[in-house]
Amino acid sequence: MFRKTLIILAVTFWGTHFVQSQNLEIGLQGGSSFMSSDISGDKFDFGVISPMAGIYLRQNYSAKFAYRYFLSASSYTQVDANKERNYKLESIVAELGFMAEWNFIGNPLSESSNYTNKFIPYLGVGVGVTGYDSNLFVGENSSDFHPQDALEETPDLSALVVGALGCRYDLGKLTIGLETAVKYHATDKIDGLIRSANEDTREYALSGSLHLSYQFGYYKAKK
Question: In terms of residue numbers, what domain contains 79?
Fold first, then answer.
């Protein structure tokens, strides 16, 4: 019992020290995501709004750079752009990853920063893993469907590459922001069509989201 108590106290102390000694933010994001797939004709389907939501932890590492760990999920519904095939896709896509952000005019939220700007625009590049669970509905007149595609199993995983452009606004302990991101999924299986369509294509996603984060640990009051 005594050993367990010491372990709990040590973990609590380490966690508290980490939070207080690091300039961290925890945040929520919500918005819409659009996917380019074989179903949409290899273009972004802006006709169907697909909701997306996520959480993240950001460390304001320096006056120019921040790091973010993120977890997000999107729900897609797509109707086949090729009416002769008559496919329909319903898919849940989750993304877990790490992103480096370059705050190109300075980040006033870093402990080492002397910047005082309220607006914090940034460019981000990230990598991670995509998990997806897809259901492809094949119409009665879909003669082009390859039977082996029906044997593909989901859920499954693939690699993820993300590029983002965004801007945050400092409200003190809170920050709000807008971000647009392009996501490359290193798979052609999310839409359920591999042999039944172009096997060389990969799924892309374009998202737009609103961010709200809370800064704990260090905070530097503005002059």
Answer: 23-217
Give the DSSP letter string of 102-148. Answer: E-TT--TTSTT-----SEEEEEEEEEEEEEEEEEEEE-TT-TT--GG
Per-position b or e across 175-209, b if 16+ CB within 10 A of its CB: bebebebebbbebbbbbbbbebbeeeebbbbbbeb
> Would residue 96 count as lying in a domain?
yes
Q: How many domains does the chain have?
A: 1
pLDDT of residue 173: 86
What one-character-per-residue DSSP string does 58-69 give? Answer: EE--SSSEEEEE
pLDDT tier for residue 5 given thresholds of 50, 70 and 90: very low
Mean predicted confidence (pLDDT) in 4-12? 50
Q: Can you tell me whether residue 161 is helix, strand or coil? A: strand
Q: Residue 5 domain-assigned?
A: no
Q: Which amino acid is at 170?
A: D
Alpha-carbon distance of 216 to 218, in angstroms, equals 6
Whole-model pTM: value is 0.78
The answer as to whether 18 is a domain residue is no
Q: In terms of Cα–Cα distance, which of 69, 29, 76, 26 is closest to 180?
A: 29
- Sign of the C-alpha dihedral, residues 95, 97, 103, 104? negative
Contact between 126 and 159 under an 8 Å Cβ cutoff? The reply is no
Evaluate whether residue 205 is within a structural domain.
Answer: yes
